[in-house]
Amino acid sequence: MKIAVCVKRTPDSESRFKIGSGGAAIDETGIKFDMDDFASYAVEVGLQINEKQGPGETVVLAVGPDAVQETLRKAMSMGADRAVQLRTDSTPFDGMAVARALAAELKAGGFDLILFGKHAFDTGAGIVGTAVAAILDLPCVTAASQLEIAGGKGSARRELEGAGELVEFPLPAVVTIDEGIARPRYPSLKGIMAAKKKPLETKPAQLGAVRVQAKAMALPPERPAGRIIGQGAAAVPELVKLLQNEAKVL
Amino acid sequence: MPNVLVFAETRGAELRKVALEAVTAGRAFVDAAGGGEVHALVAAPSGGAAAAALGKHGADLVLACEHAGFARFAREATAATLAARATSGYRAVFIPFSANGRDLAPRVAAKLDAPLVSDVTSVAQSGDAIVAKHPGFANKVIIEYAAAGPLVVVSLRPSAFTPAESPKAGRVESFAPVADPGAERIVVKGVQEGATGKIDLGEAPVIVSGGRGLKSAENFKLVEDLAAAFGNAAVGATRAVTDDGWRPHADQIGQTGRQVSPQLYVAVGISGAIQHLAGMRTARTIVAINKDPEAPIFKVADYGIVGDAFEIVPALTAAVRDARKRH
Amino acid sequence: MQDFFGIDAQLSEEERAVRDSIRRFVDERVLPIIGDHYVQGKFPKEIIPEMAELGVFGANLPEEYGCAGLNNVAYGLIMQELERGDSGVRSFASVQGALAMYPIFAFGSEGQKRHWLPKMATGEIIGCFGLTEPDFGSNPGGMITMAKEQKDGSWILNGSKMWITNGSTAQIAIVWAKTNGDPEEKSIRGFVVPSATKGFTARDQKGKLSLRASDTSELVFSDVHLPPDALLPESGGLKSPLMCLTQARYGISWGVIGAAMACFEEALSYAKNRVMFGRPIGGFQIQQDRLADMLTEIVKAQLVSLHLGRMKDEGTYTPQQVSLAKRNNVNMATDIARECRRLLGAVGILAEYGAMRHMANLESVYTYEGTHDVHSLVLGQALTGLNAFK
Fold this sequence. Notes:
- The complex is a heterotrimer.
- Chain A is α/β, with parallel strands linked by helices.
- Chain A has one domain (about 1-205): HUPs (Rossmann fold, 3-Layer(aba) Sandwich), CATH 3.40.50.620.
- Chain A contains 6 helices and 13 strands.
- In chain A, the strands form 2 sheets. In chain A, strands 9-8-7-10-6-1-4-5-11 form a 9-stranded mixed beta sheet, with helices on both faces. A two-stranded antiparallel ribbon of chain A has the order 2-3.
- Chain A is globular.
- The N and C termini of chain A lie far apart (about 55 Å).
- In chain B, the strands form 4 sheets. Chain B has a 7-stranded parallel beta sheet with strand order 7-11-6-1-4-5-12, with helices on both faces. A 5-stranded parallel beta sheet of chain B has the order 15-14-16-17-18. In chain B, strands 8-9-10 form a 3-stranded antiparallel beta sheet.
- Chain B has 2 domains: about 5-185, Rossmann fold (3-Layer(aba) Sandwich), CATH 3.40.50.620; about 205-325, TPP-binding domain (Rossmann fold).
- The radius of gyration of chain B is 21 Å and the shape is elongated.
- In chain B, helix 3 (about 75-85) crosses helix 4 (about 100-110) and helix 6 packs parallel to helix 10 (about 310-325).
- By secondary structure, chain C is an alpha+beta fold.
- In chain C, a hairpin with a 5-residue loop joins strand 2 and strand 3.
- The longest helix of chain C is centred in the middle third of the chain and has 35 residues, at about 240-275.
- Chain C is globular and about 80 Å long.
- The chains are: A alpha/beta, B alpha/beta, C alpha+beta.
């Protein structure tokens, strides 16, 4: 099958963040970046489908500055066949603009399946995949925690709050991938070496009008310090009193 | 005088809490901008029951799109219908950032060629722009977005806006969907209810959560009993115990699981790893029970009890049951 | 561990990708099980297929033999990340790559290379390196294992080797023996000995308090009959096994940096969280001074190995330079492990924490592949021209 997977380069989710001097971005000093977790699940799913279904092609795409090339190479070292960078000066916060750029590139690609992570760690927005599907007028399944592709059709389990929706859909389609579906493989050392020789194409991103900007960033207000009110079961009456009278949650 | 179109999400015919949150947010937005109307769109098998509640929470107009096909989530028809209505005279479209809302919002924004700002905890007009705050980077950095354009789609973080009554006319206008909900390309074959039971983590005012400190899957009974004692509580879990299969994945609270904002979060036998805190640190009140006084959870907990969970939790369960009886 | 001195920027994108891949593997697959395996005295055999699949074995050997074909800095980073997990795990990889695959690559015929190397890269065939004997450790040139050539070109091997990592799991042993009764070092040749050959026995050495998550064995050869093609034809003299040791020692100089990093990170985290006398112990001057020293030593060791790796890739490095790196880096790592164990206080004696396990392991690393003192004499001889070995 011809599968496209769109990936994003995001900061390591374990990082401690500081705000940069302009007050509108994080301070990137010392922050490690890597492929977003959900994007890596999507890459794994795409690779597994093509492994199961026989010969096919897995193409990875990313919108961003040249730093995203490392992320695209990582996807290729996992096994993707080629990569496309839609180049921008910086990673836009406007999800709809990113979707327009990707949709323009994907439109003529003849893909059977286009995969995205359900959202990315930094923005948590979950916009791009579904918006690309809408622009290309393709069926779209979001937050798939299970996915099967057979005979030109797909079936998936979509994660709702605490429940699962079972759906079937025709191909070509867009699916955004939730966690729990697959463990991304480690790039093998041979894969890392092979990725150096795989094609990585760079083109300017056609974002259209960028209408959403991050005006300011700030660290969340510190929670006021709490306290340990006691030891063992003996502290329970005091806790109940505080929950009733002070916190007013009981 | 801006008008806001709100998507009032239902589950079948029943209005969801996030719908009332969205209407409340819409009301606050237009009032802060000097007045305007809030119109709530309901896509349900029948819209009548919802209208009263929507009006009570600030909807001037309830656009009831009634069709049997909306008994299940008809995402394409719903998005098409919402977008079609939104083209006339609205400043913004508010959609809950629920699982289905997340599915709808980008579709609507694409159809309208409008910008979309997601998962916001506040939204207001500021000059020509709409500004909104979003806790990004797994709740570690608050991002303030500015969206330009005459029409902006905004999705609202569940539990960030507290439903408030502000009674308006809430008159009902019925209309037909612009696309047939029965002709969805995504066909729903069924819905598997979560093992968690009735109350969803995203809606529960109280969450009692357990971690590795409970030592075994069987001991989660303690947590379930405490949740039952509260009456309106859901049971959550850390990644460690869901990875080990003690609790279903759907119960996982954390950076890569559910992010929750209850009134009260009780963490039992949870050390407080950063990725777990990212999922619950916005809870209004946090209680921690752990035998290790150095556990990081105590740094975020408002109230902490150090000691053996197997002694403390049953005592707390009895005390909570008692306290609620007396109310 | 934070990149305090900007060393990451000196690595290429591939080198970082390699390091990150192995790091993740160790975090997810080795760290959760290694404490238990160490206590039980078992090598975690279940990770062998995954290590092979990643391409860890013989990673710096050419692709045409089924290997990853990485440069030597990437190879070093692999060793660093493996030993961040455990010295026993890294020893397994060192032996397989530098001491079993490398001799075949360096001294074997094309046929031998094509026969053995691809299967060793996939982990299907595990090898070990038989040089050290019960009475000949620092002085391998004195070995008494003998191989006697027969009229038909076959060999009869007799003798024993000791302290052989992977000895009991290996399918083949690269055995170094003097030939045809000649007691001189120049008669030493290398042989590929399948462990299934009649007369070959391997027995694990018991009672180890170091390198417990590793198989360390005695090998005994009792009239082991080897076909002519068991001989590694390009091998000759003590130089041959020493060349293999140089490969392994290079990797070790990187590996111990990983052990030191693991101990340092653990201790630093503990120091920031452990409260005593009302504040974290990391806020007291004695601890800060120690942490500063540890960081400095780690950075110095990284720069030594990185420069050495670049020279190795250029083909300009010398065994004496490798001695400097192995000696310095192992020494600093043993000191750091011990200091970290002390910083952890009481919990530092538990297997739940890495410090004491690393500390104990590093004693073996200090002693094997040329003891610290042997490398002192290598450098001494290089500096003065005077042989202080005898």
